[in-house]
Q: What sequence folds into this?
């Protein structure tokens, strides 16, 4: 039986995704107006569960428009076990760091944000900061029961041998033991860390986004729509600027009550 807090996750609010993307198209933030711009800093984008690089295409184009250099995570679908996914992402991180000759900021949506945090713990010298979007950082299974059923079903396929997919053993087995330890480790002090969350998130229990090591920014987006939400884009722009100035959030952001 799921805890009551998870049962009350408003999954029906995810139906507003199309309206959120339409509102972004009309918002001046998409044109880069009224927000700080970058100075050619690299930003690696890590997609959410089941999604691939193309899901963050609008964000990548926006980052280019405002002066950053977006880098792909080279993921077709974010469904592999955390250990294997982190290894491949680390290779991509090293390559982007070498290519641009400077620390890389990472923006990750949902599960992609949890992997971004893990990367910063593994290789803090390569990371300027991490921004997570609706990421369940303190409990990755704190999701709506319908979504959790899909996660467990996909894990069964991995357990039965489907390649490139996590298995049930990843939750407690030896294969991902190190990754689980790194996911729970303290975030490195030399990098910035901003967690963007929404109390109307229809997939993730928003409380699990409140990592104690992060600055917290609340927006009003749906979970899936967070990567196409105007206020989220403003928060990302502010976070990236703060990473450039100090290597960590330059001023207190809005914290959850």
A:
């Amino acid at each position: 039986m799921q805890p009551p807090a998870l049962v009350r996750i408003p999954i029906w609010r995810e139906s507003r995704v199309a309206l959120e993307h339409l509102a972004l198209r009309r918002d001046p933030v998409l044109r880069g107006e009224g927000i700080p711009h970058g100075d050619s800093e690299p930003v690696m984008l890590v997609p959410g569960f089941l999604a691939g690089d193309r899901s963050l295409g609008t964000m990548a184009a926006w980052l280019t428009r405002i002066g950053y250099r977006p880098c792909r995570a080279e993921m077709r679908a974010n469904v592999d076990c955390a250990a294997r996914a982190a290894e491949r992402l680390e290779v991509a991180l090293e390559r982007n760091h070498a290519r641009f000759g400077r620390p890389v900021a990472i923006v990750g949506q949902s599960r992609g944000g949890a992997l971004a945090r893990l990367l910063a713990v593994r290789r803090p010298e390569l990371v300027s900061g991490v921004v997570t979007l609706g990421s369940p950082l303190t409990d990755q299974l704190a999701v709506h029961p319908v979504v959790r059923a899909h996660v467990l079903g996909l894990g069964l396929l991995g357990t039965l041998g489907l390649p490139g997919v996590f298995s049930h053993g990843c939750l407690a087995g030896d294969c991902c033991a190190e990754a689980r330890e790194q996911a729970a480790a303290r975030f490195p002090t030399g990098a910035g860390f901003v967690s963007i969350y929404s109390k109307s998130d229809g997939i993730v229990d928003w409380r699990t986004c409140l990592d104690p090591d992060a600055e917290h920014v609340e927006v009003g987006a749906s979970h899936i729509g967070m990567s196409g939400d105007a206020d989220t884009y403003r928060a990302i722009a502010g976070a990236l600027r703060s990473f450039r100035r100090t290597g960590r959030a330059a001023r207190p952001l809005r914290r959850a009550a």
User: Anything to note?
Assistant: The beta strands are 42-46, 69-72, 104-109, 127-133, 192-198, 215-219. Confidence is low (pLDDT under 50) at residues 1-7, 247-257. The first helix runs from residue 4 to 7. The longest strand covers residues 127-133.
